[in-house]
Design brief:
Length: 496
């Protein structure tokens, strides 16, 4: 039993929804991202406080003299204390994680949070199935020996089934994404025989079981949906390789939104419906945009590795080929003499935490009259916008940062392309080698610059997609083998 709903609740949820919309608008640009983040926090705070206030548990009921005094009730202090304790525990975990997590581990953190959203949707769905009266979705209660049987509204059963299915897929898929991003599992596609038939058959079975559950309310279709949905989440993400992982993160973000929206209908919570729909639709749009940027089929990626092939396309680094090695002094001299330098950051920069030293290097070059620009590939790093976040953290001017389509044509007129830890997104094999797992993905044309300075830890490693980079062995390339941060710091010293 819940306390009567106050008339301002709908308005509070509306304000929260407007904050979420403005937050998404703010996050679309690095210049307004901080404001967007604050608005999102404000909106979520309003939604959470409103939900807690309107769903405080109460005890009591109609008094014996209800004709005179009406309904009497009081708040359940014990349950309220349990809710507050749970919120406090979650807040402590969240704050501790946010403070300790490194920027390099942000993609793993995002994947982990997606898994928690999916698991929450599953648990809420199970709770609603086991106790529909408490969620207000029971049409009637049939007295039976032992345990009364509650007949659930048919629409609620569909919402519940779909919410549980999407949530379970989000959870298990996010777990696999986390393991791949964290290096606990190989980033290469794991291709199961007959995977397409298995995936399609499993998805079809889930839909049929949801329909069966909505029709009969038997327990076995519900639990079968839960089990199969957990399984299909694993099967969908395992065949997807590292090169497509940023799209997977965005896609799982969309799934978590739809799971929240479905549970919002089950709970009758307007804020969850609005928030889930916004997250789901924006994540789907971002995934589609990223697929276009990578020349990938959106359907292929979300279906689970349709674009993956069994061939590796030269997975080992060809370190026996001739290449040129340079020093920090060489790099400093070449860049100081240049008219324009384009810096291409990648995951290696994130690992070394070299963004601050890189900005200092850019400032030094500007003092020598050199034009400095930063080229960002849509999938550089391990999640959408990874490089933008790191550069913004280092206070790199937004006007110096350009996306692939806006700057790619400038490499041919650039004196120096300075690549710091970016491998796959600069690999010409994407344009020439049809057996390569990254074939067809638009890449930054760094090889067209007069000189390419490429920072890499060693010549023996390969990119996340597992392929060697032809740029290493070009005549106009000078390899700078060292930790990215140390090398950039040495270059800055050489410029003094």
């Amino acid at each position: 039993m819940h306390a009567p709903v106050n008339p301002w609740v709908a308005f509070a949820y509306l304000v929260a929804g407007v904050c979420f919309i403005l937050a998404l608008r703010g996050l679309s640009s690095p210049a307004t991202s901080r404001r967007g983040n604050r608005l999102g926090m404000i909106g979520m705070g309003i939604a959470v406080l409103t939900t807690i206030f309107t769903h405080l548990p109460i005890v009591g009921g109609l008094s014996e003299r209800s004709d005179l005094y009406g309904e009497t009730w009081s708040y359940d202090v014990v349950t309220i204390a349990e809710i507050l304790i749970a919120i406090a525990i979650g807040a402590v975990i969240g704050l501790t994680t946010a403070k300790r997590i490194a920027m390099t581990a942000m993609p793993q953190l995002v994947a982990a949070f997606h898994s928690l959203v999916g698991l929450a949707a599953v648990l809420v769905g199970i709770a609603a199935y086991l106790n529909p009266q408490a969620f207000g979705i029971a049409m009637m209660v049939i007295p039976m020996i032992g345990q009364p049987f509650a007949v659930i509204n048919p629409v609620s059963k569909v919402e519940m089934g779909l919410g549980v299915a999407i949530g379970a897929i989000t959870f298990s898929g996010s777990v696999i994404a986390f393991l791949k991003l964290n290096g606990s599992m190989s980033g290469k596609p794991i291709l199961l025989p007959g995977r397409h038939v298995i995936n399609l058959a499993t998805l079809a079975a889930i839909l049929l079981l949801v329909a069966q559950f909505a029709h009969t309310q038997d327990s076995w279709p519900f639990w079968a949906v839960v089990v199969l949905s957990f399984a299909i989440g694993f099967l969908l993400i395992i065949p997807i390789g590292g090169a497509d992982m940023p799209v997977v993160v965005s896609m799982l973000n969309s799934y978590s939104g739809w799971a929240a929206a479905a549970m919002g209908f089950t709970l009758g919570n307007t804020a969850m419906i609005i928030t889930g729909a916004l997250v789901g639709s924006s994540g789907a749009i971002l995934s589609y945009i990223m697929c276009r940027a990578m020349n990938r089929s959106f359907i292929s990626v979300i279906a689970g590795g349709f674009g993956a092939t069994d061939s590796g396309g030269g997975g080992a680094a060809a370190i026996d080929r001739p290449w040129k090695r340079g020093s920090a002094e060489d790099a400093a001299f070449l860049m100081q003499q240049a008219e324009q330098v384009i810096i291409v950051p990648g995951y290696g920069m994130a690992v070394a935490q070299a963004q601050h030293a890189l900005r200092e290097m850019g400032d030094k070059l500007k003092e020598h009259g050199v034009r400095v620009k930063y080229a960002i590939h849509p999938v550089a790093g391990r999640m959408p916008g990874h490089m933008n976040v790191l550069l913004a953290e280092a206070n790199v001017p937004y006007d110096d940062v350009f996306e692939l389509e806006d700057i790619n044509s400038e490499f041919a007129q650039t004196d120096v392309a300075f690549v710091i830890g970016a491998n796959d997104v600069t690999n010409p094999a994407a344009k020439t080698d049809k057996t390569s797992p990254i074939y067809g993905m638009p890449v930054l044309d760094v090889e067209k610059a007069k000189t390419v300075l490429f920072i890499k830890r060693s010549m023996g490693g390969v990119g996340y997609a597992g392929v060697d980079n032809e740029v290493f062995y070009r005549d106009n390339t000078m390899m700078l083998l060292a930790d990215a941060k140390k090398m950039v710091e040495e270059i800055v010293k050489a410029m003094d």
